[in-house]
Hints:
The complex is a heterodimer of chains A (342) and B (309). Chain A is α/β, with parallel strands linked by helices. Chain A is 42% helix and 19% strand. The model of chain A is unreliable at 1-37 (pLDDT under 50). Chain B has a single domain, classed as ABC transporter involved in vitamin B12 uptake, BtuC (Orthogonal Bundle). Chain B is built from twelve helices and no strands.
Amino acid sequence: MKLNRIGAGALLAVGLLLAACGTPTPAPAAPAATAKPAAKQVKVAVVMPSASNDGAFSQSMYDALKAVQASMGGEAAMKIAVSEGMVQVPNAVAAIRDYAQQGYDLVIAHGTQYGNSLTEIAKDFPNTAFAWGTATDTFAAAGVKNVFAYNPRAQEGGYVLGVLAAKMSKSGVIGVCGPVEAGDAKTYVDGFKKGVMDTKKDAKINVTYTGSFSDVSLMAAAAETHTKAGADILTGSSQSVVGAIGVAKDKKAIWFGTQANQTSLAPDTVGASQVYDWTGVIKEMLDLSAKGTKGGKAFELSLQSGGLKIVYNDKVSIPADAKAAADAAIKGIIDGTIKPLP
Amino acid sequence: MNELFTVPVLLGILYSGVRLATPYLYAALGEMFAQRSGVVNLGVDGIMLMGAFAAFFVVSNTGNLLLGVLAAMLVGLLMGLIMSFVSVNLQAEQGISGIGLYLFGLGLSSLLFKKLSVSTRAIEGFPALPIPVLSDLPEIGDVFFKHNILVYIAFALVPVAAFVLNHTTLGLKVRAAGMKPEAADSLGVSVARVRYLCVTFGSMMAGLAGASLSIGLINLFQENMTSGLGFIAVALVYFGGWTPLGVMIGALLFSMVNALQLWVQVKAIPIPSDLAVMLPYILTIAALVLGRRARQPAALSKPFSRGEN
């Protein structure tokens, strides 16, 4: 019987250890001792709620960091540390603090849920630049000077994809698989709906929210419900949409994606994606930080700035008139004649 | 509100309910055997994740669905052996060790997913297999007889499980090990062996439950894709009063309420989406409070040592 606690303890320890491995700590550093970069190596850390290959929110940031790293000259010039799968906010907060303590130049808290804790941490490390999103508040009102905020105008691409959906739907029924009615998921859905209604007044848009950013099977059930209700075009937001994309593929519906290019998830199913390209934002934050400005600026990704891109999938044929309408919508949003939100 | 009670919507709820119930059914039927033998395995969700990953990984590399299912069951078997060793040989506190096993599965499946597959990509999972004649029946043909084979097997396992549990010597031994292990022991039944068998079988079913998600229902893998589904399966065992039929009714009810809340939103019934999303969980709690306790195995979660009890 004495073995009881030892056994339980041992298993728990192994479990916790491996769970910790699943949300990896900093990626191996560049071989600093041997490489000897001429300029000082910039160190960037990011804490994200899901995996870096989630095909959505986290991947958009990860891909952008890798792109910036490549443009700066690889690992010798820029070190990237990633903590992914940080569903638990307290763990994420601990990781953010750790990175700041380790002297990272820029620490990115990639999730709205991490924001509240950032005000406290940022005050303790005035020489570290922090960033969080999707958000617009840099906490300047609270006296914080070293936090950047970034926010995608998800409604813009949402509107454009809504126009495409309205033009391409044969049944006139379109299904929207929302996760939680908040943040860029909500603005995307609202923009998408307006895009559809402005293009096809009699179209029917059904919207569901699952109440979770991560519940893949419920998202699949939502997509299935939409197809049962007659939808031939589906869209949705968050990392849980992989479930819905699988259903769309199965039911031969067309999927429009957002956050990252989702074509690779189902190459015959994804018509187009709104892609968040954070490279410009990351570069500007690093520039400002190097010049001594550690925060205080809120960035917006937009179609105009090039931070939002509509990426088509060549394997799904998009009619010429639909593409023309989408291009007109992009132009209208950029010049301000179209308001993507109701 | 009347929009909700139309034939197409009700059939839609039934269809989604049957499909969604499948992973719950595998996991909960397996867990029921473990619990009837006296072991609570809270690691089900972690085993499901490992099973889901194993199946997805094997199918995306080989294209062989059967191999995927076998891989998921093998992973379940291995994790079941770990749980059995810890709960039967080491006699560890089952709740804690089960949670350890869950965290192990959650962490390892995420780690492997990241290290072994470069990107996610939908695979060709089990196709729908319409049952001849029955699938042509108007309305209900679609609802009940046009699913993939994993769905049929899950439901077919319900009567099989009931038969094994109630009408075979093995079933008698399982029930005895969970009700009165010392009496079973005195009659020459190896309680340890029975518990090993049940926990390992239950874990294989959990692995299969994972496969039914990643290569049957969704055809993709995503980090933590079960998001707590395995814990609901454990709750469904209590809900179902430790009987296969009860477990099936619970799984169907839970899934149909889930499907219902999606239809509430599709039909734009003016209920806030947050409230609709809460429906299945409210139901679970209500059912657990009101559920029958009569059949709860008396020795549930109590380690058994020969000569000590």
